[in-house]
Specification:
By secondary structure, the protein is of the alpha+beta class. It contains 11 helices and 19 strands.
Length: 407
Amino acid sequence: MEIRPTTDQDLEVFVDTLHAAFGRFPESPTEGGGGVFWSAFEMDRNLLAVTADGRSVGTAGAYSFELTLPGEILVPAPGVTAVGVLPSHRRQGVASAMMRHQLTELRARGELLSVLLASEALIYRRFGYGPATYTQRLTVPRHQAAFALPRARGTGEAPATSSIELLRRAECGEILEEVYDRYRRAQPGAVSRPHRWWALGAGQPPVSPAPRYIAVHRDADGVPDGYASYSIGESPTLTVDETIAIDDAVYTALARFLLEHDLVTQVVFQQVPPDHPLRWQLADFRAAQVNDDTDWLWVRLLDVPRALTTRGWFTDGELVLDVDDPFLGEHGRYLLTVRDGKADCVPTDREPDLSLDVSDLGSVYLGGTAPSTLVRAGHIRAHRLGAATLADALFRGERSPHCLHWF
């Protein structure tokens, strides 16, 4: 079997192989080649697994994203995608061969980490990825949607001079792109949405051209600073694809707008951060029912010292981390020293404070998973009293990481 890079001429076989791996059939693209998730594939970053007789049996790809780290630091982050193996060739090492080839290639490009969304949680930990951000779906019955405080009295309320305008998806693509880009640059864990995604309508709503209503929030100067993409289906249920806001006040204004919609029985907010205050803002705390509390973005560190010295830090301290990377057959022990928001990370032979797998380091890297949780779960081994507590303080970011982009 050969793992080889693809070209534009391989697009059809790549798409066909990927869909066959998941038992599906490709959708037809809209006029101009967009409107389907695979229209944004970067064929110079994709791989095919090919048998000796020339049959394609596996695929793996990557998008060119930026990831926002704690401290509002932006770094290139290949978004691994389209990993699939035909049912006839599974459990024969095809996926492992592709992932090992891909990680080697990413390192050769100088990448310090990679990210993905895991179709199955059991698969990607063995390749060194760990869940790093989490998301929820909240369902609020319309008759329980009253807020605890009247409009404009809460501390998180938008100014009365702000406004909300209702548009259709086809009318506001540029606004969506600009507001999302402003949001993701300040949100740890968020990934970029390249212009070509918006231009091609690749992905899920509101990136795709699927019909949606868009509630656009504007500040006192009329500048868009938030939006909510939604549709109304059966029941009737108002389903919010995503709510993007530069701060909690804008989110609250958009949530009020949606929850006050007439002729719907419930409002479903998708992609809500687990620590979002919306549940606390409602008069009935139990009104917002949590569904699909799940992982979202997974992180894989490719260069541990570079990754640790690149992100921002908010507590001073010193830890010795003993990091095992069994998939790549590597092991390293590093002294992490943080002073005044900057980190230094160098190899050391000192006794470790924590021993952990590279996948666990990926989980704690953005600050969304407490190291002490993984110590209690048996993933991380703490070698001295207080090491886990210090690690919690060190790795915590200025705000919880969250990613809602689907790729």
